[in-house]
Amino acid sequence: MQLMINGKAETLAEDKVSVAELLALKQVESPDMVSVQLNGRIVARQAYTEQALAEGDEVEFLYFMGGGARG
């Protein structure tokens, strides 16, 4: 399956992959801290296991980081 992941074309050997499986395949650290955007829309975290990916989908892993003021 051909996907665009974080702006890079990638080919997966698997034909059927969910968002949760993709996070595992890509060995994403702390997947509970990552939001996933699929074709321009944020996927609800509770839907990661059910949301199937299709040929040509565009996937972005969004990492949110907290910060503080510098003194």
Instruction: Tell me the quaternary state.
Output: single chain
What is the share of helical residues? under 10%
Please provide the count of β strands: 5
Which strand order does the major sheet show? 2-1-5-3-4
The main β sheet shows up as:
5 strands, mixed
The CATH homologous superfamily is called: Beta-grasp domain
Predict the CATH topology. Ubiquitin-like (UB roll)
Order of helices and strands: EEHEEE
Question: What topology emerges from the helices and strands here?
Answer:
Elements: E1 2-5, E2 8-11, H1 19-25, E3 34-38, E4 41-43, E5 58-63
Parallel strand pairs: 1-5
Antiparallel strand pairs: 1-2, 3-4, 3-5
Can you give a write-up of this model?
With 71 residues, the chain is mostly beta strands. It has one domain: Beta-grasp domain (Ubiquitin-like (UB roll), Roll), CATH 3.10.20.30. It is 10% helix and 31% strand. A five-stranded mixed beta sheet has the order 2-1-5-3-4, with no helix packed on it. Strand 1 (2-5) and strand 2 form a beta hairpin. It is elongated. The N and C termini lie far apart (49 Å). The model has no long low-confidence stretch (mean pLDDT 92).
